[in-house]
Amino acid sequence: MYSIYHFFAHLLRNRTLLSETGKLDAFAFDVELLSCKNIGKFPDLAIRINPEGSELTGGELIELKDSASYTIPSFNSTIPTGKKDIRKVVKGTTNRAYRQMIAAGDDVFSLPIREVFYLIRGRSGGNTKVCLVHGSFFETLPVETLLKQAFSRVLEERISESRLDINAEVKAALIEIFSQQESFSKVRDIDNASVKLRFRVMTEAKAEGNILNPSRYPDLKDNTLNFVLPCEDEAMQTAIFAYIKLAFAESEVKQMSVFRVKHWLNGWYLVFQVPLR
């Protein structure tokens, strides 16, 4: 069976290497769990899809974030979210990730909406902190809303600086037009230009969204490995524990400290924590 739970189980069983490995992407991930390894372009890793009728779907997408501090590196490839449409990720059957997934035996589009996780490693003062965290931790606003509000601020600044007179209807139309990330991510080939132009959206975690930040999230201790999942109610917690039991031996479950943390902006999360050393 394949799932993000089994992926975390592999991390737990090899957790001492998470401190010792020079680069996170050089860690010996369990290739049997993976349908894709595409370092440097989202997703860095993808979990295989389980057969229809399995208790877990598998298919989760994972991005690696490695830092020499307790600051999360910028999200350069895609704005972080909890779920992504796989059609927007692979963007056609010639995509390298798609070809790898097919070679691994996945029916790629049989699971159109994929859960997204970030494997984040930070190092500070000789300490290491590793978090496998659901993407919703960084998605306190829908991507479309985030882009709309950001572009709205840019537009208002330019209108004010240039003293242009643009009515509310035109402004609303412009904001709506530029509310999709795809508007920025394409390379523009302009006639008679010797270069191509691409506008790139980069995202940085604020203090409230930085799970490595010890002042905001003190329960995420130094020298620990953490699995962080959204958990708003008892039903979600019951389901999570059932999935944990599918991936871990009882002796491994007993090693974990389990607790909830309150996101400063985005609800409750359940944490499974083990020491790295």
Task: Furnish the topology, listing elements before pairings.
Layout: H1 4-13, H2 16-20, E1 34-37, E2 45-47, E3 61-67, E4 83-85, H3 86-90, H4 96-103, E5 113-124, E6 127-134, H5 143-162, H6 168-177, H7 182-185, E7 187-188, E8 197-198, E9 224-230, H8 234-247, H9 250-255, E10 257-262, E11 268-275
Parallel strand pairs: 3-5, 6-9
Antiparallel strand pairs: 1-2, 2-3, 4-5, 5-6, 7-8, 9-11, 10-11
Domain module tally: 2
Largest sheet: 9 strands, mixed
H-E string: HHEEEEHHEEHHHEEEHHEE
Tell me roughly what share of residues is in helical segments.
25-40%
Shape: globular
How many distinct beta strands? 11
Strand content: 15-25%
Question: In angstroms, what is the radius of gyration?
Answer: 21 Å
**In angstroms, what separates the terminal alpha carbons?**
28 Å
Number of helices: 9
Runs in which pLDDT lies below 50 for 5 or more consecutive residues are none
- Average pLDDT works out at 88
Look at the helices and sheets and give the structural class: alpha+beta
What does this structure look like?
By secondary structure, the chain is an alpha+beta fold. It has two domains: 4-139 and 204-275, no CATH class; 144-198, no CATH class. It has nine helices and eleven strands. The strands form two sheets. Strands 1, 2, 3, 4, 5, 6, 9, 10 and 11 form a nine-stranded mixed beta sheet that branches. It has a two-stranded antiparallel sheet with strand order 7-8. A hairpin with a 2-residue loop joins strand 5 and strand 6 (127-134). The longest helix has 20 residues, at 143-162. The protein is globular, with a radius of gyration of 21 Å. The model has no long low-confidence stretch (mean pLDDT 88).
